[in-house]
Design a protein that fits this description.
The protein is an alpha/beta fold. It contains 20 helices and 18 strands.
Length: about 525
């Protein structure tokens, strides 16, 4: 094999592998720690785009793969919740071209509202799953994932974690870049149209595919391997970055590293367990491997509950192996995040605080309005929830309290999943009306200043069609749609908010002022307007 060595993060390694595999479509929604995959793919010449949300991204990627070409769909772990609707039927239909869904999980919640373990999606949706441990494996496993996808005609879940996504290492980019194929249309209605008559046999085929994948995983090469000590009484079964923690924490142990963690290689696991006296599973997150290995009839030491939370480290793995469940020392407090000096969102939160509003917030940098000195956010759940939650509150409180309830959502989040909230507001309007603030800073700031459908630019900062937020809201039947600059029109802004709060109308105020950091980025790249 030819060597072409680069220093890459796990995200960058996935992008290079996807490019070398001639991916026709790279699509996703930005979310740490997944964002850099598509940004890198675009930068090295691949076809990559930001979709308005993860559901649409998965549907676009599925369309490419169903047509017979390769696709990669990227998102953070909570994004898979949004994409789950098409995902659970896509495993029934299968695919023709190779398709990878990257779930970038965030153990420890470095930048997330929860730390759900998306390995459970592989079992629930019935799809094969690979878990790389470092950047080289991120590259290698991406290539293997396309091979598996096309061999078994199934989408493959590539489950990454924050540490693997963002850690950098030497990668041998050994594969020569392919040229993308141009598929011809071949109708296959019985396998591609999931009406009940077709879905029932499709489910049977899916179960058989998973059985075939499990058997294949037992004999596959390059995905699962045994390392550590040649002999030993302690056997560790692990995956992902926990593999390296295990090697360092217990050099005396034999280690079975699983690269394909669903469906499990049952014979390999049982044979490994038979060579040691004690088996411990070392894994970040839930007891996914532990519980499913126990179902194989292998006696596994149960993991203490404290190790279901946060990232693992060498010291934590030592505690886990010692079955030490004593509470861990609290981490030293870090510097709290804060809205940037001069951020246009500051004016809104100062105003909402001073008006004693009840604020249903959303996901983005403006979520920091919950912190001092603003203390001006009371609820935050998931992307787009600010509008629906607040409408529900308006139905619960008395009239005086209801008039204090408002929704705050960013421009990118609004495009992601806020539009249907406006539909609900117009269609099922509360008796006291409602007021929604769209904080339009012309970027997706929290994840690194990505473009979206309302910026008028695509991923490459080229001109693109722009969704005009005020036109969209008016077309949906909103009574009052105002656009205001919170800095230059601050006094007018305060009076406008008081007027809208006192009304029984449904109203949207688009608070528009570009993020200063986004403007600097655009100016540096010659894209500022």
């Amino acid at each position: 094999m030819a060597e072409n060595k680069l220093i890459l993060s796990g995200d960058e390694a996935v992008a290079h592998a996807a490019f070398d595999c001639a991916v026709r479509t790279g699509v996703g929604y930005p979310g740490t720690p997944s964002t850099e995959i598509l940004e890198t793919l675009s930068a090295i010449g691949g076809n990559a785009e930001w979709a308005p949300n993860e559901k649409v991204a998965l549907e676009v990627g599925a369309g490419t793969a169903l047509a017979g070409a390769r696709s990669i769909v990227t998102m953070k772990h909570v994004g898979v919740n949004v994409a789950a609707d098409p995902l659970f039927t896509l495993t029934y239909t299968g695919v023709t071209g190779g398709m990878i869904l990257v779930s970038a999980d965030d153990p420890g919640m470095a930048s997330s509202q929860n730390e759900q373990d998306n390995r459970n999606y592989a079992k629930f949706a019935q799809m094969p799953m690979l878990e790389p441990s470092d950047s080289q494996e991120a590259y290698d496993f991406t290539i293997r994932a396309y091979e598996i996808s096309e061999k078994f005609h199934q989408p493959v879940l590539l489950r990454m974690t924050t540490r693997v996504c963002h850690s950098r290492g030497i990668v041998n980019r050994w594969k020569a870049a392919e040229q993308p194929a141009v598929p011809a249309f071949t109708p296959n209605v019985k396998e591609r149209v999931m009406v009940p008559a077709n879905a029932k046999p499709a489910h049977v085929r899916l179960v058989q595919k998973m059985n075939d994948l499990a058997a294949w995983n037992d004999v596959s090469e390059g995905l699962n391997r045994i390392g550590g000590a040649a002999e030993g009484e302690l056997g560790i079964i692990t995956s992902g970055v926990a593999y390296y923690h295990s090697l360092e924490a217990a050099p005396e142990a034999k280690v079975l590293k699983l690269g394909m963690t669903w469906p499990l290689p049952a014979k390999l696991i049982k044979d490994f367990a038979a060579t040691v006296k004690k088996v411990v599973v070392v894994e970040e997150g839930t007891r996914f491997l532990e519980e499913n290995i126990r179902l194989l009839g292998v006696d596994v030491m149960p993991k203490a509950e404290i190790f279901e939370f946060g990232e693992l480290s060498v010291s934590r793995v030592k505690k886990l192996l010692a079955n030490d469940s004593e509470p861990e020392a609290a981490a030293a407090p870090g510097r709290p995040p804060a809205l940037c000096p001069g951020c246009p969102h500051r004016k809104t939160f100062e105003l909402l605080r001073d008006l004693n509003c009840i604020v249903a917030g959303d996901i983005g940098c403006y979520t920091l309005g919950v912190l001092p000195p603003f203390n001006a956010m009371h609820f935050s759940l998931c992307m787009g929830a600010s509008i629906g939650m607040a409408l529900g509150m308006r139905r619960a409180f008395d009239e005086e309290t209801s008039r204090r309830v408002v929704s705050v959502i960013g421009d990118s989040t609004f495009m992601h999943s806020g539009i249907t909230g406006i539909v609900e507001m117009v269609y099922n309007r509360p008796a006291t009306g409602h007021l929604v603030f769209i904080l339009d800073n012309s970027t997706t700031a929290m994840t690194g200043f990505q473009e979206h459908a309302a910026t008028g630019r695509n991923m490459k900062l080229e001109d693109a069609p722009r969704i005009v937020l005020e036109d969209l809201c008016r077309s949906l039947g909103v009574d009052n749609v105002d656009v205001i600059d919170p800095v230059t029109e601050n006094e007018k802004y305060a009076e406008l908010v008081k007027t809208r709060l006192a009304s029984n109308d449904v109203s949207v105020i688009i608070v528009r002022r570009p993020c200063i950091l986004e403007m600097k980025k655009l100016a540096k790249k010659g894209g500022a307007k």
